[in-house]
Amino acid sequence: MSIRQRLQGVGMTSRRTRERMVARLREQGIADARVLDAMAEIPRHVFVDEALESRAYEDTALPIGHNQTISQPYIVARMTELLLESGPKSRVLEIGSGCGYQTAILAKLVGQLYSVERIAPLMKKARDTLWELDIKTVGFKHADGGWGWPEHAPFDGILAAAAPATIPEALLDQLAVGGVLVIPVGSDGTQSLHRIVRTESGFEDEVFERVIFVPFLSGVSQ
Ligand code: SAH
To answer: Is the distance from the beta carbon of residue 71 to the nearest atom of ligand 1 less than 6 Å?
Structure first.
């Protein structure tokens, strides 16, 4: 079935199902109306395999191939909320496009968005899916996001969807003063969500909830 046909969404894939997901996110503490609106709008089911479509609005991570997963809706909402809390962002870098779902949410909410993915087929599929959804302004790159995307730096927001043991220097270097980096940090089993803000004199680091992300890997995969 084409994405256009899948967008017709009935039953488990309809707007009403998304609205139930949003009501659940609200109960879980997500309060930013812009984030909730974007999540009600973007059809999550077209980002997963058709066989998993009916589970797309459960609050769970799902496989997207290549040993990777689409992040659970709560985490996507929470990270986006943490990124935007200090105000609108005009130039944002995402590390780990995966299937492109978080990318699509961010694209609705920030100025210019750049997204880097180290697994070539995932990057291509994410780009195609966004194009089908008429989201055509995102810059994609197949690369190791540990190097950031220097040509477009500095960023006033950076969001990483994979967990490094320590934060790559390049990401800190490419933050503008006042810029915000939201990233899971830690090794298997003991990761937490961090929000780093660049100040005039250094960096502030806040730690939020424990999370489980796939590892932030170096190098690229074809
Ligand atoms: N938000 C995405 C999450 C995908 S999982 C989604 O909802 O689909 C995390 C992704 O980060 C994976 O696709 C993985 O390949 C990618 N990744 C891990 N390390 C990376 C790196 N160094 N550079 C770029 N992408 C990376």
So the answer is: yes
* Atom 19 (ligand 1) nearest CA: 216
CA of 172 to the centre of ligand 1 (A): 18
Taking the chain, what is the end-to-end CA distance rounded to the nearest angstrom?
Answer: 26
Q: Which of 94, 204, 90 is nearest to 148 (CA)?
A: 94
Quick one: pLDDT band at residue 183, thresholds 50, 70, 90? very high
Instruction: Summarize pLDDT for 69-112 with one digit per residue, the tens.
Output: 999 999 999 999 999 999 999 999 999 999 999 999 999 999 99
- Asked whether 161 lines ligand 1 (CB < 6 A), one says yes
Cα of 220 vs centre of ligand 1, distance in Å, is 11
Residue 47 has pLDDT above 80, yes or no: yes
CATH superfamily of 61-211: Vaccinia Virus protein VP39 (3.40.50.150)
Dig out the tokens for 71 from the structure. Answer: 């992040």
Q: Does this model's pTM top 0.70?
A: yes
Query: Domain extents for the chain?
Result: 61-211
Count of residues making up the chain: 222
Measured in Å, residue 97 CA sits from the centre of ligand 1 at 6
